């Protein structure tokens, strides 16, 4: 069973870059362009990990994450923040919402982000159905 990654990002070029990168790495990838779409996607897709931008239209990433953590199905999903907002400028609401990693896009290459994701997914237990 392939591990699933949801990318919640409003920049088309970033979405395309990471979708291609992670599909080549063997992951199943689905995307959403804002927090509202992201919540719906996560509920139906049930990803092992979410890459989440903070600054998006309709619903910011921090708002989406807060709503995600309020749900039974969204409490334990790994979330990696991938944004251009520095950690010092990040909303205080992120504290206590169970972020696995915080990455500033400009500081890492796509290959380095892929390594971070691989490390985080290695910590996830993939449940296999009993035969």
Which descriptors apply to this entry?
Rossmann fold; 131 residues
Task: Give your account of this protein's structure.
With 131 residues, the protein is α/β, with parallel strands linked by helices. It has a single domain (4-122), classed as 3-Layer(aba) Sandwich (Rossmann fold). 35% of the residues lie in helices and 20% in strands. It contains four helices and five strands, in the order E-H-E-H-E-H-E-E-H. It has helices at 12-24, 35-45, 61-69, 110-122, and strands at residues 4-8, 28-32, 49-52, 78-83, 99-104. Strands 2-1-3-4-5 form a five-stranded parallel β-sheet, sandwiched between helices. The radius of gyration is 14 Å and the shape is globular. The mean pLDDT is 91.
CATH first level: which class?
Alpha Beta
Q: How many strands in all?
A: 5
Oligomeric status of the shown chains?
single chain
Number of domains: 1
Mean pLDDT: 91
CATH superfamily: Response regulator
Strand and helix layout:
Elements: E1 4-8, H1 12-24, E2 28-32, H2 35-45, E3 49-52, H3 61-69, E4 78-83, E5 99-104, H4 110-122
Parallel strand pairs: 1-2, 1-3, 3-4, 4-5
Helix pairs in contact: 2-3
């Amino acid at each position: 069973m392939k591990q699933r990654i949801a990318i919640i990002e409003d920049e088309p070029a970033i979405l395309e870059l990471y979708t291609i990168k992670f599909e080549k790495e063997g992951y199943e990838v689905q995307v959403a362009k804002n927090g509202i779409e992201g919540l719906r996607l996560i509920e139906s897709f049930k990803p092992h990990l979410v890459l989440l931008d903070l600054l998006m239209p309709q619903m910011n990433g921090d708002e989406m994450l807060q709503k995600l953590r309020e749900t039974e199905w969204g409490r334990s999903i790994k979330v990696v923040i991938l944004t251009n907002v520095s950690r010092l400028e990040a909303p205080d609401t992120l504290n206590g919402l169970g972020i696995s990693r915080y990455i500033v896009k400009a500081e890492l290459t796509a290959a380095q982000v892929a390594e971070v994701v691989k490390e985080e997914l290695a910590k996830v237990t993939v449940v296999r159905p009993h035969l």
